[in-house]
Amino acid sequence: MSKPLKIGIAGLGTVGIGLINIFNRHDEIIEAKAGRAIQIKAVSARDKNANRGADLSAYQWFSNATEMAASPEIDVYVELIGGEDGIAYDSVVAALKAGKHVVTANKALLAHHGSMLAALAEQHNVALNYEAAVAGGIPIVKTMRESLTGNEVSRVYGILNGTCNYILTLMEQEGRPFDDILKDAQDEGYAEADPTTDIGGFDAAHKLALLTSLSFGTQPSFKDVYIEGIEDITSEDIAAARDLGYRIKLLGMSQMTDSGIEQRVHPAMVPKHSTIAEVSGVTNCVAVKGDFVGDVMLTGPGAGAGPTASSVMGDLIDIARGLVVPPFINPAKDLKPYKNAKTRAHQGGYYIRLDVVDQIGVLAAIATHMAEQKISLKSIVQKLEEGGNTDKEGATIVMITHATLEQSIRDALAAIQKDGHLVGKPQMIRIEQL
Ligand code: HSE
Predict the structure, then answer these.
(1) Mind telling me the catalytic residues?
(2) Which domains does the chain have, with CATH numbers?
(3) Of 113, 175, 283, 419, which residue is 20 to 30 A from 29 by alpha carbon distance?
(4) Residue 171 clears pLDDT 50, i.e. is over it
């Protein structure tokens, strides 16, 4: 039997403790599957005395993660601290430079510094594994890095944030308020330390930037992801979507176009009976279109201690077996510079909700602006506010358009806003026929 693989874990939050729990329960299974023992030798976190509900007495304690990362005591540095810079960045760089393999769940770090870190890992002939960084427990990185490499990929999309999917699902199913459901997601350990990272769409965008690189052989480019979060989705939108035969999901989509790559994260309406609409709660899904394989969709838990730690463990077992592959499939030096597609060239149907003053001529003015942009309406419904009458109170107008260019919708909404009949911001949600 070969020598044990010695690891150091930095970050003892939900995922770190989840990983220790797997070791405690599956020590023998892990050794049998990996062909050698994997031993936790050291741990590091901010506060040594925090009550974490796990016995850490057998491990060497480092108050400085960067010091642990380069320590001769370990072969693999497991980074579960999070954040694109600071201690996470410093410690991962230190580990790679010291010739240690790295396993991380840190999507922000890789979305921002992926090319450089991949080059460093390859230079030192070590692994940089990050299955847990993309869609929690779903084995999508491994699938793309290994199983689907014989394909040219044209599109990758999915539900990439468990917290948002949990919130949207429960808003529809239970009609509970947004903040209340977010609190549940935090208690369950799904949400990021700062939940605006989740609900603002940034966490999904980090993951999408990595999927884009794996799909198209380009350097990860987070700054080129168009991002909208779910903060402005109201119960009214959820109900209108349901009445119209759709569900609202926070979608991440990356596709190759004639002018370059389009990466976007935003709420979208998907047909209620589509496979993606059925992905509910904290579950994520990732769909890849390859030229030979066709459409592949993987579904599973996207967040939480067990699923995320399960992915970390899979990465560790790969290293124990001696499997080291380039982090982004192609060698880092061969990753192409990212080229962005023309913006706002997205073409599709749109849901539009306008809260307007209820006056004669408002609907006609709106219809005129839509016609000016050559936007064809599929349906239009006007509802008076509760207790409203025809000349004083507000009204809500909900429209569904036929396929049109995003820029035309934006121009029409700008013209409608200029007329001064709107109360608040117009709502626009893209409709995706997936
Ligand atoms: N906060 C993330 C989510 C966890 O809700 O999906 C994994 O990135």
Answers:
(1) 207
(2) 5-133 (3.40.50.720), 140-301 (3.30.360.10), 345-431 (3.30.70.260)
(3) 283
(4) yes
